[in-house]
Design a protein that fits this description.
Blueprint: H1 2-31, H2 37-42, H3 48-58, H4 64-76, H5 84-93, H6 101-136, H7 141-155, H8 158-171, H9 188-221, H10 225-232, H11 237-248, H12 250-266, H13 269-274, H14 280-289, H15 293-321, H16 323-326
């Protein structure tokens, strides 16, 4: 166990270092975006004095290094700042309650997590089932059809799949709503119905990776001596795969599932925009349009943190599920 604990601590330290490096990249990239928020809100007729005044009020006149360390310190305390758009709104409206970046992101992030959860609940069992059946009936018509279907879905852009599903499930056959107008206080059943179409779009995108990795990992183990022994004992092919092959193929399967779950959180921007889903991806696109730097930086940091966390989780679970990794020679 001390060896496993050491491996886990090493992975966590590496994750923290990676997140720190990513924060530098995020800050640099966001501040290199073309355009200026002060000029954007003042319009073309803005005077240099007015632009300078707004930049001074927002702290944009400070050196980049100073602003980065201030942002990093606030981030470590959970303070992601205040939206520039909110500051502009409060100035024009003459005061009122100020909304922080955290209060803006929290409900959107909850919506994105709900979408990712619904997609994972559909995609993971579906992909595992297809992978097991493809391995069981490999080189059959079913196996070839499954491979063609999954490769076609993953090769198509998300927006194309989204519009195809809207055409068949919302226009020609009005089964599901084409727009996901989620709001606070909505019942679970109604929320699920409005989330189902974007969830099906994401399912088509992520199923192929998980299905093909499951199939490849199981087929790779079917030639092992203990699998041959299980067959000689008279066990059914399905039982051999589920009881003997699948548990030993968990490490690569866990990795690919975690990577696709990370995509469900970080790669939902296009799908959320197509379905007007009020998630963090839609908020990110809106913030980029108006150069709202605090919101853009916070969204990027959440995307990076979620991706790194799920990769670390997959790495740790792979170590725990494989005795050879738990006890390296």
């Amino acid at each position: 166990m001390p060896g496993v604990l050491k491996i886990i601590l090493q992975r966590l330290a590496l994750g923290v270092l990676t997140l720190f490096i990513v924060s530098i990249v995020i800050f640099t990239a966001v501040n290199m975006l073309p355009g200026d928020f002060a000029e954007l809100i003042l319009g073309q007729g803005a005077t240099p004095e007015a632009v300078a005044s707004i930049r001074r009020d927002l702290g944009l006149d400070q050196p980049a290094l100073t602003r980065y360390f201030e942002w990093l310190g606030d981030m470590l305390t959970g303070n992601l700042g205040t939206s520039f758009a909110q500051l502009n709104f409060q100035t024009n409206m003459g005061g009122g309650e100020m909304k922080t970046v955290v209060s803006q992101i929290a409900p959107r992030f909850a919506n994105t997590m709900f979408l990712a959860g619904v997609t994972a609940a559909i995609a993971v069992p579906f992909a595992l089932m297809l992978g097991i059946l493809s391995a069981l009936y490999r080189n059959s018509v079913f196996d070839r059809f499954t491979n063609i279907f999954t490769l076609s879905s993953i090769s198509s852009p998300e927006f194309f799949l989204a519009y195809i599903l809207i055409l068949f499930l919302a226009v020609l056959n009005p089964i599901l709503p084409s727009l996901s107008n989620i709001y606070e206080g909505m019942g679970f059943g109604e929320r699920l119905q409005k989330t189902l179409l974007p969830a099906l779009t994401l399912t088509l995108v992520v199923t192929a990776h998980m299905m093909r990795m499951t199939r490849a990992a199981i087929i790779n183990l079917l030639a092992s001596p203990y699998i041959e022994m299980a067959r000689l004992k008279g066990m059914s092919p399905m039982r051999v795969i589920v009881k003997h092959a699948l548990p030993n193929a968990l490490a690569p399967i866990i990795n690919v599932i975690a990577l696709n779950l990370a995509y469900l959180i970080t790669g939902v921007v296009v799908v959320e925009v197509v379905f007007v889903y009020p998630g963090i991806g839609q908020l990110f696109v809106d913030a980029v349009k108006i150069r709202d730097i605090p919101v853009v930086q916070a969204c990027c940091l959440i995307f990076a943190g979620a991706y790194i966390l799920l990769n670390l989780t997959a790495d740790i679970l792979s170590v725990l599920s494989n005795p050879r990794l738990r006890h390296p020679k």
